[in-house]
Specification:
460 residues; alpha/beta; Aspartate Aminotransferase, domain 1; Aspartate Aminotransferase, domain 2; 2 domains; 4-stranded mixed β-sheet; 17 strands; 16% strand; binds 4'-deoxy-4'-aminopyridoxal-5'-phosphate
Length: 460
């Protein structure tokens, strides 16, 4: 229960801070969890309570909440050169090094990188890049963006328009020209008697029809998360991207992989696209890029888009776009270290991606075990991202009435036991840090199971 004395942290948080994506009645009732620090995958609140954060913060603190190597990289860079921009023909040495590194770890032998402060800005920037280069190439109408319902691409006006969530209607979004196709969630969207392959074929046909109706010359890109994250952890069927991509290629529409969550190891692969066996035309990265130690996003353009953008920019002598902190030297130094820590191994330790691969079978087994419950309709995921979806009726997949706020109750019951996980729709999401031990994995599943049992006893 919250300490509701006027000078409590909870009251002070509520008095002066505006919350985003927060259920205000829940906060009024339960108070804000005010955090002071962390250790490994645990965070600690002002009352000294410890929580296992099964969401890695917001999918991003993949190396945990106290990584000495990452902290040292930040300190060293603050000592050397604490801030600079990437405008007017200047940029920091760390920015040069990071771009080289990102191309090296990307699927591209050559290409170029542009930096932002967030994933939202990276998606916005990508769209502006495409609008700009298409206009330069004499196709100013080639501006529409295809994404999917339930896909999440950010909150700025353009990236929110890409996001396929109904809540954006309160802002009068999406903007015109942002088209949301069917979510590739076979369990929810597949029709009675339809095989998974037939489902994929139906989505491919929908794409073809959309291109025919809208006109390929009006469509600038198809942007997709390999595994949808904030949509509720939804892995597309394995054949989806390999069937979608040839259609896009035939019509000259780039396929952009939003790897903000999937990139750098979350699926057990360097990129979510790699897990699905496709090469996108560009990659959007953020979150894991700095292991959450610095706000940073990046657009990694493959060779073709990179050349076309370069030509368009040369034609007017510049690409008129950039953020004050684009390519911030401290962010770049942290990202260089994070890539080493996750992908290569640093300071005598094996790469964290090895641990992702090691613990994924236990993670999958834990999800499968929860799927046995009468009120779990589906357990799904890939690598170290997973979700269990609550249902009132397993056979018909009938959801619980929204008024019961089942997933919020489960998440609250988890918090009460010292486990942070996130409600998303009727699902509860798990996205633990890459450093998890076997014991921590057991702790996570046993606390979640207790919470599920408590809530299902109340509502079922
Ligand atoms: N794309 C994806 C796939 C994301 O998951 C997110 C953030 N959850 C974003 C873009 C937006 O990133 P940011 O919150 O850093 O703006």
């Amino acid at each position: 229960m919250p300490d509701d004395s006027p000078n409590s942290w909870e009251a002070r948080a509520a008095a002066n801070s505006f919350y985003g994506f927060t259920d205000l009645p829940t906060i009024a009732q339960r108070g804000t969890v005010v955090l002071t620090g962390g250790e490994g995958p645990y965070v600690t609140d002002v009352h000294g309570r410890r929580y296992l954060d099964a969401n890695s913060g917001l999918w991003n603190m993949v190396a945990g909440f106290d990584h000495p190597g990452l902290t040292q990289a930040a300190k060293d860079q603050y000592d050397r050169f604490p801030g600079y921009h990437a405008f007017f023909g200047r940029m920091s040495d760390q920015t040069v090094l990071l771009s080289e590194k990102l191309i090296e770890v990307s699927p591209y032998s050559e290409g170029r990188v542009f930096y932002t402060n967030s994933g939202s800005e990276a998606n916005d920037t990508l769209v502006k890049m495409l609008w700009f280069l298409n206009a330069h190439e004499g196709k100013p109408e080639k501006r529409k963006i295809l994404t999917r319902k339930n896909g999440y691409h950010g909150v700025t006006a353009v990236s929110a328009s890409m996001t396929g969530k109904p809540y954006n209607s309160v802002f009068g979004l999406p903007l015109p020209g942002f088209i949301h196709l069917t979510c590739p969630h076979y369990w929810r969207e597949g029709q009675e008697g339809e095989s998974e392959e037939a489902f994929v074929d139906r989505l491919v046909a929908e794409l073809e029809e959309t291109i025919a109706t809208e006109g390929a010359d009006t469509i600038a890109a198809f942007v997709a998360e390999p595994v949808m994250g904030a949509g509720g952890v939804i892995p597309a069927p394995m054949s989806y991207f390999n069937k979608i991509q040839p259609v896009l290629q035939k019509h000259g529409i780039p396929l952009i992989s939003d790897e903000v969550i999937c990139g750098f190891g979350r699926t057990g692969h360097a990129w979510g696209a790699e897990a699905y066996g496709f090469t996108p035309d560009a990659i959007i990265s953020s979150k894991n890029l700095t292991a959450g130690f610095f706000p940073m996003g990046a657009i990694i353009l493959g060779p073709e888009l990179s050349d076309r953008l370069q030509k368009a920019s040369e034609s007017i002598e510049e690409f008129p776009h950039g953020f004050t902190a684009s390519g911030h030297p401290v962010g770049c130094a942290i990202a260089l270290k994070a890539i080493e820590v996750i992908m290569e191994g640093a300071d005598g330790n094996p790469p964290l991606i090895d641990n992702v691969r090691r613990i994924t079978p236990a993670f999958e087994a834990g999800l499968k075990r929860l799927a046995q419950k009468d009120n779990i309709g589906e357990a799904r995921g890939m690598g170290l991202m997973g979700a269990v979806e609550a249902v009132q009726d397993k056979a018909t997949k009938l959801p619980f009435p929204g008024s019961l706020s089942v997933s919020e109750r489960i998440a609250n019951a988890c918090t009460d036991q010292g486990l942070i996980c996130r409600p998303l729709g009727q699902a509860v999401v798990l996205c633990p840090p890459f450093i998890m031990t076997d014991d921590q994995m057991d702790e996570m599943f046993s606390k979640l199971e207790t919470a599920l049992d408590l809530v299902f006893d109340e509502v079922a």
